[in-house]
Amino acid sequence: METAEIAVGQTRALLDDWDALTAAHWPGIFRFALASLRDPDAAATVAQDCFTKAWQNRDRFRGEASVRTWLMQIAVNLVRDATRSRRLQFWKRAPETVPEMADSRPSPETDAAARERLRAVWSAVRKLPERQRTVFLLRFVDEMELREIAAATNMAEGTVKAHLFRALRAVRQQTL
Amino acid sequence: MSEHLEIERYLAGERAEADDRHLSECAACRDEIARMEAVLADFGASAREWGTRPVRHAGGRTAGVTGRWLMFAAAALLLAAIPVYYSYAQHQAAAQAKADTALLDAISADISRPAPEPLEPLIDLVSTQGENR
Asked: CB 3.0–4.6 Å: which of A82, A139, A142, B60 could bond A44 by disulfide?
């Protein structure tokens, strides 16, 4: 049996164990949706819809991309739809929601500086155009490789790099 | 030394051998790369940490669904309670009407008496004497 066929067979077996698949990939999908929408309820809805759509279309999954990339592709589309349909109320409702630092800093001064810097990054990310924001979040929150991001967003890898470059420029300017 | 590195290009993954050579010689670019990597690491960590927190109302979608089910359940209970309430209200109204009728009867009886209740034996006595004459 060819290696590709084995990989597809393994993927199909993974799809059959839906509970395990959901448990493994839910956090990443939810995290991306949350960082994009900044609304836990909306993010949970996107994650739920993502797995529902994936379940409904599982027979069409060919194993050409990883399951994670396939799920992320669905999530990217759902987040885009959610952002477009809720754009106005979203910006009104959560204009300055900024997550806390993940760890504590050695001193109050460095802690305050780090918080301020983090706030600046979230603020910059908020203002990014949709594609730049998606690419930035997939790269630095979900730590996806550029080729995975390209597959998840249906963009060429060069386009992903270009979006990432622009997003990084905006974020860097905000944190200087 | 060559021109400074384009930091964003480097961080976006567009790296050449010349970049590494430059970084080995240029402390300013090294520091800036390190600073930006720390900024991005903090950002990613904060987003990941945020994603592990329980969703508002204790459980996100589950909580939303639970909340919706609770609302449906409350509405169903309310609908089910309406006939019971009407039946109870009708029963109460009938009992009240009965009590009102009894009260009115008592008042009518009081009004139609020729004398107050304590004097009624005397009236009986008078009428008995009249009959005996």
From this structure: B60
The closest CB to that of B43, out of A34, A121, A146, belongs to A121
With a CB cutoff of 8 Å and minimum separation 6, the contacts of B29 are B4, B5, B7, B22, B23
Residues of A in contact with B47 (CB under 8 A): 31, 34-35, 99, 137, 140-141
pLDDT for the residue A51: 94
Q: What mean pLDDT do residues B19-23 have? A: 92
Q: Give the distance from residue B6's alpha carbon to the nearest chain A alpha carbon, in angstroms.
A: 10
Contact A31, A77 (CB under 8 A): no
The token pair at A4 is 């590709």
CB nearest A102 (choices: B12, B14, B49): B49
Residue partners of A62: CB distance under 8 A and separation at least 6: A8
Q: What pLDDT, in 10s, does the model give residues B36-74?
A: 999 999 999 999 888 787 655 434 444 455 556 667 677
Q: Is the pLDDT of residue B126 over 50?
A: yes
Q: Is the pTM of this model over 0.80?
A: no
pLDDT digits (tens, 9 = 90+) for B28-45: 999 999 999 999 999 999
What is residue A57's three-state secondary structure?
Answer: coil
Contacts of B53 in chain A (CB under 8 A): 40
Q: Which residues contact A8 (CB under 8 A, 6 or more apart)?
A: A62, A63
Phi-psi region of A99 (alpha: psi -120 to 50; beta: other; left: phi over 0): beta
